[in-house]
Amino acid sequence: MDNGMFSGFIMIKNLLLFCISMNLSSHFGFSQMPTSSVKDETNDNITIFTRILDGLLDGYDNRLRPGLGERITQVRTDIYVTSFGPVSDTEMEYTIDVFFRQSWKDERLRFKGPMQRLPLNNLLASKIWTPDTFFHNGKKSIAHNMTTPNKLLRLEDDGTLLYTM
């Protein structure tokens, strides 16, 4: 499992434990922090996140690749094969299932805030520049969509993006 995903699960687990302990302590009268200050802090964080997200796409053109006219955009690609087969000798075809991950830097998306990493939902993927990746001689490819599109988009404060599908 990816260290980023693992740390994300740990962070969610810790957040849930914190919420449960806050709920229990306030229920049994053990709370040392007034409930209003917790709500104020949560509202402040939501306001900060909203400002960052609003500012990210202000004047951003997703049709232009990062560094256009200055330098090439280096895209790091990882492919993790989860299954291979069946193979058809007569049709000269095979099937593979993969985790496909790309990473690149887009300086236009740099941000300053209390966090270093900003997880973004899959709807934002259509609003930012993404590499136009294709498989040479590929006959058919399918992106798995279960209840929602199976995509992950994560933005680092220096403008580095991780895009997984």
Automatic annotation (TrEMBL):
- What's a Pfam family this protein contains? Neur_chan_LBD
UniProt KW keywords? Chloride, Chloride channel, Disulfide bond, Ion channel, Ion transport, Signal, Transport
Subcellular location, record wording? Cell membrane
GO biological process annotation, one example: gamma-aminobutyric acid signaling pathway
What are the residue boundaries of the Neurotransmitter-gated ion-channel ligand-binding domain, all occurrences included?
A: 50-165
The membrane-topology field of this record reads: Multi-pass membrane protein
Please state the span of the N-terminal signal peptide per the UniProt entry. 1-31
**GO cellular component terms?**
chloride channel complex; cytosol; nucleoplasm; plasma membrane
Location, primary (coarse class): membrane
MF terms (GO), sorted A to Z: chloride channel activity; extracellular ligand-gated monoatomic ion channel activity; GABA-A receptor activity
Q: What is this protein called?
A: Gamma-aminobutyric acid type A receptor subunit alpha5
From which organism does this entry originate? Homo sapiens (Human)
